[in-house]
Give the backbone structure.
Amino acid sequence: METLDDLFIPYAELETKTRALMTNLFSDTCGMCAACCCRADICEEATESAFLAKLLERQGLAAPDMDDRYGWLDLRGCSLKYGRPPVCYEYFCDELLARLPDEETRFSAKVLGKLMDHVGQKALGGWHLVEIMEEADLAKVDHAGVARRLGESLAAFEVIQNYVSTGRLTKSDIAALDLITSRES
Ligand code: SF4
Ligand code: SF4
């Protein structure tokens, strides 16, 4: 991939797949939740971040479309197909974790929740990709590094999807998942 522009589509594809799998796995619990963990100040990050704002643009959305009180949340849940702040996928409350059957499943779920965050690590010096606020700074991003981490997240996604079907993780599967939780990569 040559430029950051080339990353928008694969990023949106990975996020779309990640969102769909998480919805499939957790919507029974989150759909019944009376204490939804979405917050308007987190929603705002999607419009403040130069990278995420561009993903919103691709859906025909911009800051004025966001509700002042509920952010991107509507009666069906989050209205963003992609371009959510990565933290939206990372949080698992104790009740949700307690409903998962064992440690291996909890580990896999936590890795799934970190896939989008992993893509943007150290995109510009110490800055995460979604922390960049100025559009002009997107041109300075380490494109090759972001593309590599995108590939790692995609590989880990395939492992998790297979685990959901088979209930089995090999040693190489675990290595692919460990890569996502390592902050050194
Ligand atoms: S993660 Fe927990 S607090 Fe958040 S919506 Fe799901 S059940 Fe509710
Ligand atoms: S999941 Fe959507 S509605 Fe919830 S905090 Fe994130 S952006 Fe806002």
The longest strand covers residues 73-74. The helical segments are 5-31, 40-48, 50-57, 87-90, 94-99, 103-119, 143-166, 171-181. The mean pLDDT is 95.
